[in-house]
Every structure is written in structure tokens, then in C-alpha cells.
Fold:
Amino acid sequence: MKYTAEQLRAPPEPPGRVRTGPAVSAGDCGLLLIRVTFGLLMAGHGAQKLFGLFGGEGLTYTGKGFAALGYRPGTVYAAVGGCSELLGGAGLALGLFTPLAAAALIGVMINAMVTVTAAHGLWETDGGMEYNVCIAVVALAVCAIGPGRLALDRPFRWGKGGWYEAAFALCLGGIGAAITLSLR
Structure:
């Protein structure tokens, strides 16, 4: 007996159970939990930089910090970093334009590692890049896996995730970081 590729990929249905539509799996809910938690925290981090929300210092003070790191004009770079975190985080939380959202967060984290944390080693307790690596890896992994069934990207090709989407996010984030670092 020959089976089609679709039949080989489909999980077996238990006897007597009729599927009426696409069920939401525990994996879908788990991915939604990761996306929403991670995305909203990153969006909040961007809002701290841009608007001084959630105990943040706001754009003027953050701009001074960026200028001290060699980013001139500091306020412009602080706005770019804050917008990348705000929009990238919101995009991941919603599962909207996931490869672009991941690229924005990856680019910001590469900049943070190069300019601040890498000199202190790996571990956060020493001021290292542990936190930045985790953010970049989670963003890249969500892009590779895809945002899941409970995402606004679901109807689009990039909403399925995959190697191309992950490579796009990593390359675009890396190119953005390289341009930013070369201009400072």
C-alpha cells in the first residue's frame, strides 16, 4: 500500500474521534507563552528607553548613556535601540512580522554585546553578555520554529518558520548591527 507524504506526516487519529478543525496543542500554547512573555518584556525595555516608563530614564538620559559609549548623536542611537526593542518585542508578542521582529532584537543585542557586555565575560553577575545572548537566541529560535498557530503571521509564508526565516533574521540583525557599529 502506498501512502502520500501528507498521510505519512499526519498523526494517527484515535478510533472514534472525529477532528472538526485545527486543535490548539500544548506546544502552540507554550510557544504563545514564550512569545508573549518575552516579547512584552522586550517591548517594555524599549519603552523604558524611549518614554521613561516602568522605571526607565527616558530618551534624554538614555541618549547620554549611548553617547558615553561612543554612539553620536546619542539620542538618535537611543531612539533606534529603543524602537528596535519596542517594535521587535511587540512583533514577537503578536507573532507579527516575526523575522523582522527577531532581526531587530538580534541587532540590538549584538550591539550591546560588542559595546558593553562582552568585555566582562559571559556571566551576568560579572556584567557579562549572558542576558544578551539569551535574548538573541530566543528571538532566533522563535523565528526558526515559527510563531505558532496562535499568531498573526500564521497565514503568511514566513509564519511557518524555517531555515530561511532564521537565516534572514540573523543576517539582517547582523548587518544592522555592523552598520550601527561602523557609524559610531
DSSP finds seven helices and no strands in the chain. The CA atoms of residues 124 and 131 lie 6 Å apart.
